[in-house]
Amino acid sequence: LVTEVRLRRVLDSRGNPTVEAEVRTEDGGFGRGAAPSGASTGEHEAVEIPVDEAITKARELAVPRLEGQVYAGDQRGVDSALRGADGTSDFSEIGANSAVAISMAAAKAAADVLGVPLYQHLGGAFRGRNFPIPLGNVIGGGEHAADATHIQEFLAAPVGAPSVADAVFANATVHRRIGEILADRGIAAAKGDEGAWAPSIDDSEAFEIVAEAVGAVADEVGFEIGFGLDVAGAELYEDGVYRYGDETKTPDEQREYIAGLIEEYGLVYVEDPLDENDFEGFAELLDRVAPETGARKAGRPLICGDDLFVTNTDRLERGIEAGAGNSILIKPNQIGTLSDTFDAIEVAVENGYAPVVSHRSGETEDTTIAHLAVATDAPFIKTGAVGGERTAKLNELIRIEANA
Ligand code: PGA
Ligand code: ZN
């Protein structure tokens, strides 16, 4: 039985306050979870509210429904208590930030009681054998860095890596190699919110540099490394057109542009190529670039909906109906609880959509998503390439793999 739920404000990677939750149980279980935070958030996401308000409201409304009321191991019970306490569909009352922190802390307390790793509690006895391929953000801009690329993320994708550890190190090597190429070209670059290089260059130069770096590192390590993108199309879309600085593209031009990039660079993954409400556009793009796979057989390239689906089963079902994409980004804080997150993954897998578990641009040391990816056999995890709040997850994957 949950005996205590504590909430406090802690720092996230951008230096903003976020919600941390601790759950204790009567048999000595303890779990701690912290909410991440997005910058290029989708308009249909569950709502993050100011931290102090989220904590006050959760203490007042949610904690009394948890302490002495539910078992930490009854994740559905914990999460429906959170939903009941909130009373809205988007967690705008207690905040998705409080909800997700408590939901994750409860899962960890339950794993602690059982004396098993979190991925095993979440996934059962037979999980922990299939590991996700990490997508590593190596160059980026958009909402994550000022005066950098228009496309938000260029992601190294070490699809041929024999192990998670090899993949993690390959991504870090691509990141380092890009730093060297930028230096050789005399281009100064800081890092964006997710640790990617954020040079002030055209997207076309970024493609050139990333292609060169992944090619060189693939030769070095001896396995296939592709790359992919998070276009974050909703952030570019304004008044019916996609804006790249002074240049604009109509939706048809945007779709053709992305199809051309997939062909030219053999992209293995493209997230949010179009606006967050353009289900038909996602379907047309998938038909255009991967007619042989279709939505029901997740193949290459993955056309992934992040802001399109926001980890929401209703939106995913609408996408399945429309044939929109063949992959869904999974972010627990977009929907607010682990139960809802699992439901989204289940609907995705049943319908041939590849789930890609993801961090947010604002992160903490919390490693829940590493366990979530292993527990659900997710084929990919997107959690950066370098930087402590990113390596917290990557190193946890290395540990899980080493101990499995
Ligand atoms: P966010 O960006 O966490 O700032 O929303 C990540 C993404 O768009 O995938
Ligand atoms: Zn995204």
Automatic annotation (TrEMBL):
Pathway: Carbohydrate degradation; glycolysis; pyruvate from D-glyceraldehyde 3-phosphate: step 4/5. GO terms for biological process: glycolytic process. This is Enolase. It catalyses: (2R)-2-phosphoglycerate = phosphoenolpyruvate + H2O. Binds a second Mg(2+) ion via substrate during catalysis. Mg(2+) is required for catalysis and for stabilizing the dimer. GO terms for cellular component: cell surface; extracellular region; phosphopyruvate hydratase complex. (2R)-2-phosphoglycerate binds at Q152, K331, R360, S361, K382. The active site is at E194, K331. InterPro entries: Enolase, Enolase-like_C_sf, Enolase-like_N, Enolase_C, Enolase_CS, Enolase_N. Its main location: cytoplasm. Belongs to the enolase family. Residues 128-404 form the Enolase C-terminal TIM barrel domain. Catalyzes the reversible conversion of 2-phosphoglycerate (2-PG) into phosphoenolpyruvate (PEP). It is essential for the degradation of carbohydrates via glycolysis. Keywords: Cytoplasm, Glycolysis, Lyase, Magnesium, Metal-binding, Secreted. The keyword Lyase applies. Mg(2+) binds at D230, E271, D306. The lineage of its organism: Archaea, Methanobacteriati, Methanobacteriota, Stenosarchaea group, Halobacteria. Pfam families: Enolase_C (PF00113), Enolase_N (PF03952).
